Each structure stands twice: as C-alpha cells, then as structure tokens.
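To whoever is covering the structure queue this week,

Two jobs came back overnight. Logging them here so there's a record in the thread.

Job A:
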Amino acid sequence: MHRILVVEDEKKMSGFIQQGLLEQGYLVDVADHPKQAQELVENVSYDLLILDIMLPETDGLELSRRFRAKGYSGLVLMLTALNTTRDKVAGLDAGADDYLTKPFDFNELLARVRALLRRRGEATTTLVNGDLVMDLIKRTVVREGHIVDLTSKEFALMELFLRNVDKVLDRNAIAKQVWGTEFDPDSNVIDVYVNHLRKKMDNPFPRKLLRTIVGHGYILSKNH
C-alpha cells in the first residue's frame, strides 16, 4: 500500500487530490505549510510527494532540494502553474521526478502517480527481513517457505513494520500510516491487528519478531 504526501496550501485543491487518491486505495496525508511537510517527511516513510511550487515562505523547489539533501529517496511530483521549459527544468533540477501543470484533470494526475509508482516498483518489489519475505506485487507474505495469509489491512500493517525494521512505532504513527486517520486513544483496534499478526506470522515459528515495547509501541526485530 503506497503512502503519499500532498503539500499544497490551497485547501480546496489539497482536499480534492486527497479524496481522489484515497478512493483509489492510496494512503494520503496533507500538509499546507513547508514546516509541517518537513516534520511529516522526517517521521513518515512516503513513497511519493506531490509538491506545489507556490507555497508560503518556502517554495516547492527549495523544499524538494531540502528533502533530497536530507536523504529522501522517494518520488517527487511537482505541481506548477508555470508552463515554460525553463520552469520545468528547474523543477527536475530540484529533485522532482515529474511535473504537472495546473489546471489539470484528476485522471491525468492519477496516471502520473501510477506511472511513477510503477517505476519505483520495478526497483523494489519485495521487502525482506531474514526468512520473512513480502512481495509487494503479488501481495504475498512468506516465512520459512510457508505462505502467511493476511487480510488487506494486516498486509498494510506488516508492510509498515517491514519498512521500519528495528524501529519502535507508536500507536499514533501506526494509526496515521495504516488507517489514514487521527487515532482514537480509546480504541484497541491496533492491538487487535498486532495480535492477529503475531498469531499468523510469529507464533507458528521458533523466533519471535514482533515485540511490544511497553509505554512506547511495537517493534519488528531484525531477523538474522
């Protein structure tokens, strides 16, 4: 399940993009200010950033340069109201993988998103942690040669853990990245799904990988 960040200060536009992408099955966050975008990128693993060039205080070009300088290796799709070759080159030079000129049809945006994610998928189609292997194309999980049957939400949660091996993930971070919504502290849905994962991909095997860090969250240990 791909996660996308939309950085756009026009709330009507960002809401339109977010809703359309959510309906296509993507996990989508929105930031309307460069500072908020920087905080999200530092704490969340995004496959794609959709950046508007015209932003308050710091434009999208500079923001893209900052992300690349700090090691962001995901995809960047730049949105621009400018349509000259010089402007497009400036966007690509700033680290963008593609650009789209405003105004645009959502279907065109969706086609660009799909093309970019396919391009990235060609390079990385599996996530591996020792004998635990996830195939992102076939949507399968295998451990010690045995197929682990997961629901779509369990798969998304497992993907999040595999992208953050040996990193403690708190319940708020898990909720935002897998459920795409603000977390209700009174809900036990995350605990329930983690227990489902334990029963399916941990309990049947000698080495236990998924651990609870009391007071902090959960961690998928490195499987040597």
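Job B:
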Amino acid sequence: MNTEKLEEEINYKFKDVRLLLHALSHSSYANEKRHNGGSNERLEFLGDSVLSIIVSEYLFNTFKGNPEGDLTRLRAALVCEKSLHKFAKEIHLGDYLLLGKGEENTGGRERPSILADAFEALLAAVYLDGGMEAAKNHVMRFMPKDIGNGKKLIFSDFKTVLQEIVQKNPEEKVEYVLIGEEGPDHNKIFIVEVCLNGQVIGKGRGRSKKDAEQLAAKEALELMGYETF
C-alpha cells in the first residue's frame, strides 16, 4: 500500500507508520488475516473523543454568543456519520482501507459507516503520533467555511442530522408518522409528520414516504433555528 499518497492527502507525515496502517485495518481484514495489531476499532473509540474535544473547542471559541444548546446541536451535526463520511471521501480514505474479501466484494470501501469509523481511527492515529496540535490541524480543514452564525447546516440527510441532535438527550424520542396520501396511484403524494416526544415539530410532502420524512425533518431543523440548503 502506498501510504505516502495518503499522507500527502492529509498533509501529515507519520513518524510511526504502523499507527496509520492500524487505523486503516477494518475488523474484517484483521479477522481474516489474524492481524496481530487487531482492527481499528480501539483507535475509532479514541478518535471519537478527540474529535469531540476539537470540534467543541472550535465552536466554543467561534460562537461566543451562542448558548450551550446551540453548540451541542451544531457539534452533533458536524460529527455525525453523514459528515464524517463526507470528510473521509474528501481525502479518498476508502481507497486506502484494508478490508477482508467479504467487505471488499460488497462495497465496503464506499460504505458510510466504515468510512466514518475509519476517519475517527485515522484522527486517533494522528493524535497518538503527533499530539493534539497535529490532530487539530487535521480536523480543522474539514470544518465548513460558511457556517455563518452557528446554525447553518450544509447536509442533505436531514433525518440523520435531526437524529444526531436529538439523541444527545436519551429521554427524547423522534418518530415519523404518515398522516395522509393524495393523488392517483401513479402520482401519489405522501404526507408525513415528525414528532418529538409526541409533539409535531415538522411536516413534509413527497412522492415517496422517504422523501416526505426528509422534508419533515428539514422543516423541524428550520423551526429549531437551523438554516438548511
């Protein structure tokens, strides 16, 4: 594997390239090869915490007038799987993953969950190899440049973003309810409400239930103060 090309992608040169290889080793590869170093799952665990610290500090320093709730919701949007998948694709991380044959043959290099986890593992490897400053430099390149007043979302998977925001409070529950259908079978429109703890917080209309749910989540995010596009 040409690790030097990935190092160029992330603009970081590893002192211990074994950390980089460990971060790229999916569990399917580690199990198949009986890899002594194991998979990247432990690094993923560490990377999740490092990412949260870096993003929290960035938001805290950037949006000094925003209350804790806003910062929490924005952090959730920035570190959700959808975002990490996008970041991983920016550096073509999937091209460098070490996968077992099963994952390789079933599209593992493009799977959002695998890429998001690998992004966190890679961050942990950078942190262990170069310290917090190196990790911070790596993360900051992915932060949106037009984040505006701290409430602008640039993601299209509104359901995922809403779920990431809400699940920070375990007692809260989001559910989508189909409340109606309009039009003939060949041109049907579905109407969906999204509810938070039983209270309607958004409504969407779409040509499929999935589209209607996305638009309902989008409306809910906008009502919460987020600018979506």
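Note for Job B: The CA atoms of residues 29 and 35 lie 8 Å apart.

Please reply-all if you pick these up so we don't duplicate work.
Q.
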